[in-house]
From TrEMBL:
Gene3D superfamilies: Vaccinia Virus protein VP39 (3.40.50.150). It comes from the Bacteria. Pfam families: Methyltransf_23. InterPro entries: SAM-dependent_MTases_sf (IPR029063). This is Class I SAM-dependent methyltransferase. It comes from Halomonas lysinitropha.
């Protein structure tokens, strides 16, 4: 079955993998791997999974995890740069870390911080940690975020990356039923070119994209 890629909208896709719960297709154009729309969770089921998360700014382990994006991005920001944490979750933490470092922050989350007014403002940088793998329409959502950035602005993304088919079949990332799209390094390179950005990979699960 040929499906349309939710990132680049190409119909040049192929079946990539199947496990006991879902199918996974890969786009031949941008290399995104994605779950068919019919196999996604509904909103209530998705929210129930997120409600189980126990992330908190008081958890030093969670702060260390987020530092993989926080540290390299902070090094690239001017003092006082303003940011948005997109998909902040039930326990916003990355925004707290940036505010502690002197960067005013806004947060947005479709389940826990649904204030769409923040998506109408401009920011010097936008972060999304462990978010893009949940997006049903990543092409539209990421383009909307980049539109909020000026020339030289940063988009910081944290998500595990696809490597090869054999590793994919054993990948723990597939166990989360809310994970529906999976990026590889090639996908991020395509995305950067498509959005007129440059991309860096400071960690195995971090991509920093800067608007030209």
């Amino acid at each position: 079955m040929m499906l349309t890629c939710p990132l680049c909208a190409s119909s040049d896709t192929e079946h990539f993998h199947r496990d006991v719960r879902r199918d996974y297709h890969r786009c031949r154009h941008c290399s995104l791997v994605f779950v068919p729309p019919a196999q996604r969770l509904g909103p209530a089921e998705e929210r129930a999974v997120y409600d189980q998360h126990e992330n908190s700014p008081d958890d030093p382990g969670y702060r260390r995890f987020l530092s993989r994006l926080f540290d390299p991005l902070r090094e690239r920001l001017r003092p006082g740069a303003r940011g948005l944490d997109f998909g902040s979750g039930p326990g916003p933490t990355l925004s707290v870390m940036f505010e502690e470092a002197g960067h005013p922050m806004a947060i947005y989350d479709p389940f826990y911080a649904l204030d769409t007014r923040v998506l109408e403002r401009s920011y010097d940088f936008i972060t999304a940690t462990e978010v893009v793998e949940h997006l049903f329409a990543p092409g539209r959502e990421l383009a909307r975020l980049v539109d909020r950035l000026p020339s030289g602005g940063w988009l910081g993304l944290m998500t595990k990356r696809v490597t090869d088919p054999s590793a994919f079949a054993r990948w723990h990332y597939l166990l989360d039923p809310t994970h529906v799209v999976f990026f590889s390094e090639a996908t991020f390179v395509w995305l950067a070119d498509h959005l007129d950005m440059r991309v860096e990979f400071p960690a195995a699960d971090v991509a920093l994209l800067q608007r030209r």
